[in-house]
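In this section we walk through a basic example: taking a raw amino acid sequence and producing a predicted 3D structure, encoded as discrete structure tokens. The instruction is simple. Fold the sequence below.
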Amino acid sequence: MNSLNFLFVVISAMIACEAPNHRIIKLTDGLSIKAELLLRDDFSNGIDNWQAEQMPGGTVYGKDGKLVVKDKAGCTVWFKNKLNGPIMIEYDAYVVEAGGAFDRVSDLNCFWMATDSEHPDNLFAKSESRNGKFRNYDSLSLYYVGMGGHHNTKTRFRRYNGKGEKPLLPQHDLTDSAYQIKPNTAIKIRLIAYKDIIQFYKNDKLIFDFQDPNPYTEGHFGLRTVHNHMMIDNFAVYQLTEIAN
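The resulting token sequence is shown next.
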């Protein structure tokens, strides 16, 4: 095991030990919710829970208890289970910069609550035709965050409406370095879909806070990237319920 992998293992183990089955999460100043563990994947048994759609030239595999993506031209790795909200998704990501062929620090991206209106009960019906090419996902309904896009200069949130429209609001187009990717470092990602509250956190810091008048309440989660080498660990899904006053 090289030094980068060893560091990721140590940090991920520390984070995993701190992750309880029940937590209280503050979403807004006036709203705290209970998060109860629903699903967890530490990749110790491989990546059978995941399905990759990838352009030629890259690979997705399990190694040392992590999901590893080495991508050349575009890739989405879907969690096979359809998720029903309200939910919170958490995972640890590590973008590698060590001089390898895929080691470009960019595009630590994700989809969540993704559905296909043409095949509402089977997101994977058109998996082969999508094939990892980014524009082929425009027909889906979903939430998207592109962290560190454009060679680690932009982090953006978009809501795909299933009709090819995915508007970018000015407040969802961030260029400050604090919102971009720090390579060779474990980054904790948290996604929220709680009623009309849609949120994205990086290392417990709220980055995007979107109120959706027509929220997506079910769908799939997917890791998304292009020309990137990253490792994923400690994936967990929590069911969210409001705390009674």
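Looking at the output, two observations stand out. Confidence is low (pLDDT under 50) at residues 1-18. The two ends are 50 Å apart (CA to CA). In the next section we compare this with other chains.
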